[in-house]
Amino acid sequence: MKLVATVKLLVDLEQKTRLLATMERINEACSWLAERAFELKSADKIRLQKLYYRDLREMFGLSSQHAVRTLSKVCEAYKRDRSRCPVFRKYGAVVYDQRLYTFKHGLDRVSLLALDGRIVVPCVVGDYHRGRLEGARGQADLVYRKGKLYLFVSVDVPDGSPVESKEWLGVDLGVRNIAFDSDGKSYTGAAIEEVRQRHQQLRSVLQSIGTKSAKRHLKRLSGREARFRSNTNHIVSKCIVAKAKGTVRGIALEDLTHIRKRVTVKKSQRSMHSGWSFFQLRAFLAYKGCLAGVPVVVVDPRDTSRTCTFCGCVDKANRRSQSEFVCKSCGFSDHADHVGAVNIARRADVSRPLVAAIGRETHSCDTSLRLVTSPSL
After folding, report:
1. Closest CA to 179 of 249, 233, 226
2. Are residues 121 and 263 located together in one domain of the fold?
3. What is the pLDDT of residues 298-319, one digit of tens each?
4. How is residue 369 annotated by DSSP?
């Protein structure tokens, strides 16, 4: 499985200037090449390389490998949306493959190719990421973020020993409760919502003031809420994967793709709804499950929160509120999220022949799981 390790570059002023100049020139070349590709309506790397490789070398002073990576970057960007011409930011991330970067003296220094030659830069790697970098390393992204330079290195990490699961731990993802599993364990989202409201109010006040001091404060706040949300999702996903592995079960999730297009909410709830982080949690569950050898699948979410787990009655009226479930047929009552989680687990178990574990080559950001469907329970 491929994951990403973060390397912080400890550059001096001269090194920083040279690397930023390299990033600026490459992105300038990308924007120029994107216009040519858009005119030709072609994302064929071989064709574009035959036509413009020499121009990239001569007009922008790129090395041969930088020119090749520029061609690849433009083709990948144009393939995503052929309706418009891609535009690249001045200091957008630049791809460095194994010919463009190498580690020296273990992991203490890294050699990077700039426009005017190689630069050997001191770097620092955390213990967690250092362990990842000991394995096979792939290409890396040179990233400029908040005045600092980083190298995000793709690494191959072995999967965990597969768990021969006979049962499934259903997980219902939501807003009020980040997750609710089929064992009845609730992972509440109250802390995240409290932080979101506090940051939203503070941002609103600072934006209305508009002074230089307020703008500096807004800059310091940038990303703080997202980091808190990400840390919470890491903790929740780690707990769920550990429980599933400890009880020799797989993890079943509901497929919530395009959920925001299918669900409408009141105006007062829009910010809460847009801050819903279930996709990130699903991504974390996917890669942590793969590392632990725990199979992770998604199932059709239709009627999971409206189906009685006792008698099987399916009725919209069964769910009285966000948290209350009372069956109209047999009178069974329970927390609505728990009912949904149990039905998700059952749906994965019923469709066992179609269930697929996460792919062996899944990237940390790739949450593409095979959807399993089953008749309504």
Report:
1. 233
2. no
3. 888 888 888 898 888 998 888 8
4. -
